[in-house]
What we know:
5 helices
Amino acid sequence: FILPSRSENFGISIAEALSFGLPVLTTTDTPWNIIEEQNAGFVFEFSEKNLLINLNKLMKLNNNELEIMSKNALKIIQKNFDKDKVFDDYINFYKKILI
């Protein structure tokens, strides 16, 4: 999945792509540095040159490397955006501001 952006606030489409196990190419102007940190894709400075460089890097990966990235993409979603975790985070947030 590719989403180059100069000003993405979250990029729900990135989360959706990760939830399907897709490696992601995106830019540093998105809040998704975890993608590169967790080896689920590549995050780069916005430019046509950098997009091509990172697309070529992705295309050169073998099936095993792509499978690892795919599993890592799923782990990012499971760890950070599982509905139970999100609900717990909201409950804890409201407990802090209401108490």
